[in-house]
């Protein structure tokens, strides 16, 4: 088996498994190599690269700093950003933790107000736009 040959030299075409003999065909090395090259091109287009990763981290750090100016807390990224599985137009998920129990009812409004003010700031480090407050499900305390 060559370096660029699929296991057994065959690929299924997605039809029924009991029809294996009639739905499998041998791919020659040249076609297999071409498929691998095309796949690598596609992955290179959508995977995070150093500039996009730096930019996304800079935006996350900027928003983290803004939130921490509102009240004492720790802010972390989660989801696709730290896992580096985001798509080019993907969002940045942040979560915050605070020991201040008195802010339970007001922190989200304070963050929204701060972001809306930053939206009007012409000298902001990044352009803030389309601020939305989405009330997520609240867990019982």
TrEMBL record:
Specify the Poly(A) RNA polymerase mitochondrial-like central palm domain's residue ranges: 40-138
Q: Name one Pfam family in it.
A: MTPAP-like_central
InterPro entries for the chain: MTPAP-like_central, NT_sf, PAP/OAS1-rel
Protein name as catalogued:
Poly(A) RNA polymerase mitochondrial-like central palm domain-containing protein
Q: Which organism is it from?
A: Fagus sylvatica (Beechnut)
């Amino acid at each position: 088996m060559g370096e660029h040959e699929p296991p057994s030299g065959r690929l299924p075409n997605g039809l029924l498994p009991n029809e294996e003999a009639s739905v499998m065909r041998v791919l020659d090395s040249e076609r297999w190599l071409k498929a691998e090259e095309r796949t690598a091109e596609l992955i290179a287009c959508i995977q995070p690269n150093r500039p996009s990763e730096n930019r996304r981290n800079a935006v996350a750090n900027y928003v983290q700093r803004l939130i921490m100016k509102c009240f004492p807390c720790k802010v972390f990224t989660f989801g696709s950003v730290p896992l580096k599985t985001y798509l080019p137009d993907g969002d940045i998920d942040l979560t915050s933790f605070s020991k201040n129990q008195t802010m339970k009812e007001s922190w989200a409004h304070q963050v929204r107000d701060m972001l809306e003010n930053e939206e009007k700031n012409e000298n902001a480090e990044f352009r803030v736009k389309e601020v939305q407050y989405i009330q997520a499900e609240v867990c019982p305390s």
